[in-house]
Amino acid sequence: MKNKILTLLCFVFAVSNLAIAQNTFNDYYNQYKEGYDTSNLVKMKKGSEDLMTNFSDEFAGFYLHAYYQILNSDLNAAQSANQQAINIQPLLEYPYYTQAYIDFLKGNTDSALQNLEWAAQLSTFQTSDDIVNDMSLIEQFSGKDLTTLKTKWISYYQDKKIDNQKALALGQCVNGIFTQGKTCDNLDQLFAHYINLPNSNPIFQTILPSLKAVSLYYKGNSKASVEQFEEFKKLSENNTKLYWRRSHALHFLSVIKNNSFNSRGALLDINEALSTYKNLDYPSIHQASMTFHKINVLNTLEAQNEEIIQTAYQLEGIANQINNDYYKAKAYGTIGTRNFFSLDPEEKAKAHSYVMKAYTIANQLNDQALIQSTKNNYALIKAEQGFYTEASELIEEVAQDYLANKEYQKAQHAYNNLGAIFYKKEDYINGNQQFEKSIALIENVKASLNAKQKLEYMNRVSDTYEFLIMGLKETNEIGKLFKTQEEVRGNYLRDLLDKTIPTASLNDAQNMLKDDELLLTYSIGKPGEIIISAITKNHAEIRYNYPLDDLIRLKKTYTDRIKKVPPSLNKYMQDYNVDYVNGKLVRFGNKEKNFSKDDFITLVEWSREVLDNSDKPDYQNVLNDFMHFWYNLTLLPVQDLTSQYKNVIISAASELNYLPFEAFISPKNNYFITTNNVRYIPNVSVWKYISNRNYAADRKSVIAFGGAQYQPSGNVKATVRNMEDFYKISDAVSKKIDQGIYNFKPELEAIGFGGANYLGGTLEEVQYIGTLANDAKIVTGMGMTESDFKKRNSSGELAEYKNLIISTHGFTGDVIPEFSGLMFSQPDNGDGNEDTFLLAPEIAKLNLNTDLVIMSACDTGIGKLYGGEGINGLNTSFLVAGSNSTLLSLWPVDDSGTALTMQLLFTNIIQNNLEANMVLNEIKRAFIKGEFGERGKSPKLWAPFIYNGR
Question: What gap in Å lies between CA 8 and CA 2, rounded to an integer?
Answer without folding.
Answer: 11
